[in-house]
Amino acid sequence: MRSSTGRWVSGDGFFDRKAELEILESRVRGRNHVLLTGQRRMGKTSVLRELGRRLAYDGWIFLFVDVEGAASPEDAIADIAQAVHPYRPIASRFAEGIRRWLSDRIEEVSASQFRLKVRAGLDPGSWRRYGERLLRDCASQEEPVLLVIDEVPIFLKRMLERDESAARVDEFLSWLRATTQALGENSPVLILSGSIGLEPLVRRLGIPDRINHLDPFRLGPWNRETSVACFERLAESHRLPVDGGVAGAVYDSLGVGVPQHVQSFFARLREHATMQGRDRVTVEDVAEVYRNGLLGPSGQSDLVHYETRLREAFDDEGYSLAMEIVAEAAIEGAFTLGAERSLAALYHELVEDVSVRIADALEVLAHDGYLEAGEDGYRFQSRLLKDWWTARFRDHHVALERRLEASAAVGNTK
């Protein structure tokens, strides 16, 4: 098993998720469309790639489409066409239907060139028709087809921001649902996935029924046993001696078994041993590498991506509220009901329907694994994320309730 940080893994590099794969495979073989959710770095792409590899071994056609860079339905259809290109019977049938703007033979163009040519022929008036043709050509295959569309929420949010209207989002999701339902049992099996929540987005837009044909499945973190077993497998595969208790100390430092974080911790411990000229890892190394490696400058590129995803999940007002919430939860230990009321009071003149917007932000933060609800408020699941946000905000965050009191005191003196 190789150490992998930031890349999806499959085959021999894939670890555990046996139960999750069995459930997903059962749903796909049963022709059920799926909505796969889970927080960042949970290994969704790796699970999907491994599922596709196993199904392909059994005769399925596996199409993986990443629409993170798409900004319109035309872009998304072109992305699907690019994924179809290697499967010549499907690609050739589709190409025959677009001969008026695609004169090249399939064999004469690369997948990326095929995408560009397909995209050039699509416009707001034609993408539905040609998208339906593309899915119908997939459905005409004798072999069953699994079509994974990844980063769907980011694509829809980008379209929402560009058009300043939910109409195109509604149009695309309605088209996708209607087309797959019309194809019936022959339809490609869909899995929609993303690192920010699709369900909170469609609920916020008032169109939750547009995804009611998707069977939700949430990919959760590893438990302690699995996290320890993965770390020990990595150490064995890389022939790195580790003292007893190191793998458990890694899990305790992280606070939750996010697969990517376990992998990253192992990689940095291995690098640390090399830099120190030692051939083994001790329990004492765990605390040092956590502090200076994961939370230090070298670990920032991975952690800052969590903030980037929040920026992608919200508009400007929602993002400001979300950052207030995570700062409060990090510095004060929890985002309590009192803090929620104080935040609403502080922002009521700046944000319309502020209480509703705060509730939306909390739903996204909980759905995407940043915080979890408890009896005394919302707390971080991950010690790593809590410590990172604490380091960022501790010098300038003032507790929301104290800030409201100070604001009221200033107002009384005027």
Mind sketching the topology for me?
Layout: H1 18-29, E1 34-37, H2 44-57, E2 61-66, H3 73-84, H4 88-96, H5 111-121, H6 127-139, E3 145-150, H7 152-163, H8 167-183, E4 189-193, H9 198-205, E5 215-218, H10 224-237, H11 246-254, H12 259-275, H13 283-294, H14 300-313, H15 316-332, H16 337-347, H17 354-367, E6 371-374, E7 377-380, H18 383-393, H19 400-413
Parallel strand pairs: 1-4, 1-5, 2-3, 3-4
Antiparallel strand pairs: 6-7
Helix pairs in contact: 1-2, 3-5, 3-6, 4-6, 6-8, 10-11, 10-12, 11-13, 12-13, 15-17, 15-18, 16-19
User: How many strands?
Assistant: 7
Q: What distance separates the N and C termini? A: 67 Å
Regarding quaternary structure, what we see is: single chain
In CATH, what is the homologous superfamily of the largest domain?
P-loop containing nucleotide triphosphate hydrolases
Order of helices and strands: HEHEHHHHEHHEHEHHHHHHHHEEHH
Rg over CA atoms, rounded to whole Å, is 24 Å
Structural class: alpha/beta
Binned, the helix content reads 55-70%
CATH class of the largest domain: Alpha Beta
Q: What CATH architecture of the largest domain do you see?
A: 3-Layer(aba) Sandwich
Main β sheet profile: 5 strands, parallel
Low-confidence stretches: none
